[in-house]
Design goal:
Two copies of one chain form a homodimer. The first copy, chain A, has eight helices and nine strands. The first copy, chain A, has helices at 12-30, 38-45, 49-57, 71-82, 97-103, 141-147, 159-172, 198-210, and strands at residues 35-36, 69-70, 88-93, 113-119, 129-130, 133-136, 150-155, 176-179, 192-195. In chain A, strands 5-6-4-3-7-8-9 form a seven-stranded mixed beta sheet. The first copy, chain A, has a two-stranded antiparallel sheet with strand order 1-2. At the A-B interface, helix 1, helix 2, strand 9 and helix 8 of A face helix 1, helix 2, strand 9 and helix 8 of B.
Chain lengths: 211, 211
């Protein structure tokens, strides 16, 4: 099933929540639950049933009036809409301590994300092995991205180098960037960036601890 | 300066953005820039000047008409509002590979976050040293949280144990949880949770790669 959605018609916050829906649905499916109401889904996602119904309405009609959602079917449809039924190749830049931890992170592969090439600006690291890949130099980035059909870049360089590395990824044609560096980068409108930053997450919670 | 804000009066998305403001302002300050316009701030945060002004308006009057914001002053005020001028003690539960990487992450301490105690449900790990702390058993959690004035819990256990561990943190009195487990946990309304999950971040970007 290939469903193509007009991405501009869906609010960004809804897209951000979809992977959580998929998680919760997989959870119910593996517990043997076949049908779920928007109330039950809402309770697990800390949302109201009305929000759930509104979110899902962007992608078509899923529920049956008074009956709820078919867990398996909804999970398959959402996975297809999110592109999670495909394999996605990623390139990682920056093989310091953080980069090596990310390369060895076991959570990517089962979800269809595969780091297929690693790069570093430091000449002394080029040629070394990280996660059974040979560290490449950045001048090879564009060719590797094209040849290996890489759509995702993972940035694990220090903050001061992050914007320049992200510029290089953008020039190489990467359209989605997972940024571990603690800076909000500037990218063209057709490139998506998601930050992974535990300190930012902590800092937005201390507001509530204090106030 | 102790500024107490009514947390309910500020939208959650604004609070989420404040740490980014602080980052960008520190960046400008260290570059020797003393005054900044909402246009310049907006360009670095990929927001409109009007959004910037609206966000900051929740916390008082900062800018001078036609002159912009005083970088140093705004940074200090926002840090105070966010509670970043304090030291926050945290407890970590789950000292497997991920937990050990988080304990040794160098980004927390400079920002005022300190992991002061580590726990694991696995009896075989109790008593071992991780990051120069002795791994404690979970029955000691409540006492440790109280005695050491711990407000933040960091969860690095496998998904299947995460909800139970989060329940224990909530019972022990922790009000802010940084959750590395790939589940959206259920917590009481007075407890904040932020997830750190690179797979979720990737999954919301593949939607845009595909559609």
């Amino acid at each position: 099933m290939q469903e193509i959605i007009n991405a501009d018609s869906v609010p960004d916050v809804v897209v951000q929540r979809l992977p959580l829906y998929v998680r919760v649905l997989s959870h119910f499916a593996s517990a043997g639950i076949e049908v779920i109401s928007s109330e039950q889904l809402g309770a697990h996602l800390q949302m109201t049933p009305a929000q759930i119904r509104k979110d899902l309405s962007y992608f078509g009609r899923f529920g049956k009036q008074g009956r709820g959602y078919d867990v398996g079917n909804l999970a398959v449809r959402l996975r297809s809409i999110l592109g999670l039924d495909s394999q996605w190749n990623a390139v990682l830049i920056g093989v310091g301590r953080l980069g090596r931890a990310v390369v060895s992170y076991p959570g990517f592969e089962p979800e269809g994300f595969r780091i297929v090439a690693v790069f570093d600006a430091d000449e002394r690291l080029v040629g070394h092995e990280v996660g059974s890949m040979r560290v490449q130099k950045l001048t090879e980035l564009e060719q590797t991205v094209t040849e290996r059909d890489i759509k995702i870049g993972i940035v694990t360089v220090p903050a001061m180098y992050a914007q320049e590395v992200i510029n290089q990824l953008v020039r190489a044609g990467v359209k989605a960037i997972l940024n571990y560096a603690p800076i909000p980068p500037v990218v063209p409108p057709d490139v998506r960036v998601q930050g992974v930053d535990p300190v930012l997450a902590l800092q937005s919670m201390t507001f509530y601890l204090k106030n």
